[in-house]
Design goal:
globular, eight-stranded antiparallel beta sheet, 20% helix, 6 helices, 258 residues
């Protein structure tokens, strides 16, 4: 944090028994070191088998964050689940009402079927690894999660969360009937418009199928309007759909492509 606040292009670091000195131009900051801190650092756990995944896993941790439960009354819903399914690694998060799920390809032989990862560990992973990394993932004999880059220069180890994650396969694999499709940018603009047109944060948006168009309505507004999802394609006619704008925004932000 100190280094990032330095406004010179070049900084220098030097260390003594008293601490580390950071110099930036004419400025100097000395950060004290803690005696014995390195002595308490343990070797990373030994893992007999890793799978290798892309940094797509880290991106999925970030995108799935808004779908975690905020309340500690359901502790397992504040965590991510990593499951081996059909030769892929599935990451899932849910708050009981909304759900995020993403599958990542892997190489190697997994030594686990499911890992429950706390949000704190997931947040640490997004800081230790980048989207361009290849990451080795495994569990040691005591159930400790180990993640490391291919060079072994960055290692994250943490205990699994002790709990049971809900079975979301019945939702993921349930058949569904698409109703309409539109460009992502059009829907994002409509969500922005909802925040300007309503007096308070709207609790819902209403979509109606009107002939060959989709009309959009907002509650709690004094404005007169006729709003349509431009260029939307109706796949199956429907009467009305009510969606929460906040939840819809979280879902759209996780979708790749246009």
């Amino acid at each position: 944090q100190i280094v990032s606040a330095c406004n010179t292009e070049t900084i220098s670091l030097s260390s003594t028994d008293r601490g580390v000195t950071i110099r930036s131009g004419k400025s100097r900051v000395r950060v004290p070191t803690f005696v014995g801190a390195w002595d308490s650092i343990q070797e990373p756990p030994k893992v007999d088998s890793f799978i290798t995944v892309s940094g797509e896993l880290v991106t999925a941790f970030t995108k799935g964050q808004p779908f975690l439960a905020k309340e500690e009354s359901q502790p397992s819903l504040t965590c991510f689940a990593l499951r081996i399914e059909d030769g892929q690694l599935r990451l899932s998060s849910t708050n009981g009402s909304n759900m995020y799920s993403h599958v990542v390809d892997y190489e190697g032989e997994p030594n686990f079927s499911e890992i429950i990862v706390s949000k704190e560990v997931a947040q640490s992973a997004t800081k230790v690894f980048g989207s361009g990394d290849s990451i080795q993932l495994g569990v040691d004999s005591n159930g400790i999660i180990v993640m490391m880059n291919m060079e072994g220069t960055r290692i994250l180890s943490a205990p699994q969360f002790a709990g049971v994650f809900p079975d979301i396969n019945r939702i993921i694999k349930a058949p569904y009937n698409p109703l309409f499709k539109c460009k992502k940018s059009i829907m994002v603009d409509m969500l922005k418009l909802s925040s300007h047109m309503t007096d308070s944060k709207a609790s819902y948006m209403r979509f109606e199928s009107v002939e060959d168009d989709i009309q959009v309505y907002f509650p709690e507004t004094d404005m007169e309007y006729d709003l349509y999802l431009e260029g939307a394609e109706i796949i199956a006619p429907f009467e009305k759909i009510f969606l929460n704008p906040g939840y819809l925004s979280d879902c759209i932000s996780t979708v790749a492509g246009d």
